[in-house]
Amino acid sequence: MTSILNNYGSVQYSSPALRLMQTGWTFPKDVDLSVIEGTGSLNERLEQANSAIAAIEQRITTSAGTGEDELLHNIAWLPLIQLRQQLAAQAFKEMPRTKVEYDEATQVINDILRAAIRKKTGSEHNPVNRIEGFADEVALVTACLLDAEGQEHATHGVSRILTYAQAILDGKIKTDGVVTLEHETPGKLSFNGGGTFGQVAVQMALQGALNNMDTLPDDSALMVTMKNASHAGRLEWILRQATRKGYHSFALFNVDGKGRTAPFGGAESRLGTNPIAMGVSTGIDQDGIVGDSATTAWAEGAVRIAYLNNLTVPLDVLTTPDGEPTIHPAGVYKEGGPPDLLLPIGGDVAAYKGSVFGQMVKLLVDATSGRKAGNPVGTPGHNNLLLVLNKGDQSSFTTVADNAAYLRNCPPKPGHTVHLPGVGGLERLGLARQNGLKIATGTWEKVLELHRKVCA
Question: Is the pLDDT of residue 380 over 70?
Fold first, then answer.
């Protein structure tokens, strides 16, 4: 019976099941399947679907071995699971949102960061890193969070302030951490983030790299590593700056500061979401094209958004340590006992491929950045970056533009549109700056509650 319930495809009918069909078996009338008819609100239908699934599972348990369990699995349980998948995805997409002016959200996040630093240190924040274009570290981090939220990548947006503020108070983020160039060899710069905000560390590493390459000829390349920093947000932020300055780029980030997934076949968290990002330039002062993706089915931030807004997630996103699928995000953040795990990209068919990418990001970034073996997952300040920059020229810019047009002009499937990576995000950001952000209501309520608490 357990093997049947764990199978999200049709199961083969046994002889008892076939005999039941031949003798006129009918579906149990005491099992309510009215949810399939589509009445009620979205939340009500989700509750009804969960109740119906539980009732069918109970019936399958009591019918195990009779053949009826296989009939119930194929005829009722699978359609209900599919319906719940659709409803969960719809609920996430349509979660209640609050319109917040861009400047207002900026001020709230800025206030929280500065108040948390005051509470921790007893004084106002004292800038220790000279960041080009920003007054100080807080201004940079705030801008990164709002940029992500404006692009509708809430995974790395304002919700992050809830963990950042606590990390400051707990001393896990060293707000006085100085980013230093630790080592320089031909073709490689190695930075140490000093335990500061990850956004500050990667920005300083990029800044140092671009200054280093300014005098180099076209087509020059440089490897840049950064170790010992906290959560760094979206890699798109730094690669977009590189593309606008005429650089093609490739970045890997080993998110070992908080492991969220296991190697394929493993039961314990040993890896982070370990994103991979690439950027290609179409010319100086042009946005270029940037793609940024975690190596897990969902970014951890998306799971966090579901958790903050009391939503479930679809199947193939999370699993318990013993391999059972789960739709409840709270298990990822539970205290005590092994947490639930994010699944690699690839799902049931090819999760091993996503796991290959996640593991290789860890191994390659650690090897090149100098992170020592034995630092336990969850140790603050152990997020590392590997960035490769290639200085473009007009020929390469033209090649990118031509290839991008070739991809963009691909005939679309009916009802679909072909999008290049990152382009939609920039369009949404422009609209958000003009018309305001649409922040998940549950998230914004918790941010305002934190603001009242720390800024009192």
Answer: no
* Structure confidence at residue 377 (pLDDT): 46
- 107 shares its domain with 87: no
Full residue range of the structural domain in which residue 183 is found: 98-454
**Residue 111 vs residues 185, 193, 410: alpha-carbon distances, Å:** 41, 24, 46
What is the average pLDDT score of the chain? Answer: 92
Same-domain status, 447 and 300: yes
Count up the domains in the chain and report the number: 2
Contacts of 37 (CB under 8 A, 6+ apart): none
DSSP string, 263-290: -TT--S--B----EEEEE-SSTTS--EE
Rounded Cα gap, residues 92 and 302, in angstroms: 9
Please report which helix (H) or strand (E) contains residue 386, including its range.
Answer: strand 383-391
- Shared-domain flag, residues 88 and 157: no
CA-CA distance, 277 to 85, in Å (whole number)?
Answer: 29
% of the chain surpassing 70 pLDDT: 97
Q: What CATH number does the domain containing 373 carry?
A: 3.30.1370.60
Residue 289: pLDDT over 90: yes
